[in-house]
Design the sequence.
């Protein structure tokens, strides 16, 4: 008997939506400023969604990153696949496979210009 181990598209989207909602709420609670990018229509994209968040200090970067991981674990029972950047706290990446969060200081965000790199993406802005 052949078992399909890959979740269907609607189940994956529902899971992503729940994770995205938890991430956005965590960012808002810690006063991050953000833009989420929908990358599903871009064939070469490495994930379905990027959430780009700006923080005013390294302390805020750490607080947002920690709170995102805590909230997603509690609300969605998901741990990140990986995270990077916690040593320097200029740009922290939290990777949930199909949803990747970027928490950046303003200088890093201006320098790397992720939104310009993925300019074909649909942009959905969320107020802090």
Sequence:
């Amino acid at each position: 008997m052949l078992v399909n181990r890959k979740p269907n598209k609607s189940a994956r989207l529902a899971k992503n939506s729940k994770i995205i909602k938890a991430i956005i709420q965590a960012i808002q609670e810690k006063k991050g400023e953000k833009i989420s990018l929908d990358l599903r229509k871009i064939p070469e994209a490495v994930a379905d969604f990027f959430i780009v968040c700006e923080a005013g200090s390294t302390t805020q970067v750490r607080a947002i990153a920690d709170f995102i991981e805590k909230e997603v674990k509690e609300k969605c029972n998901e741990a990140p696949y990986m995270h990077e950047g916690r040593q320097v706290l200029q740009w922290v990446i939290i990777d949930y496979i199909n949803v990747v969060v970027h928490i950046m200081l303003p200088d890093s965000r201006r320098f790397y210009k992720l939104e310009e790199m993925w300019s074909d993406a649909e942009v959905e802005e969320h107020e802090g």
In short: The chain has one domain: 10-122. The two ends are 49 Å apart (CA to CA).
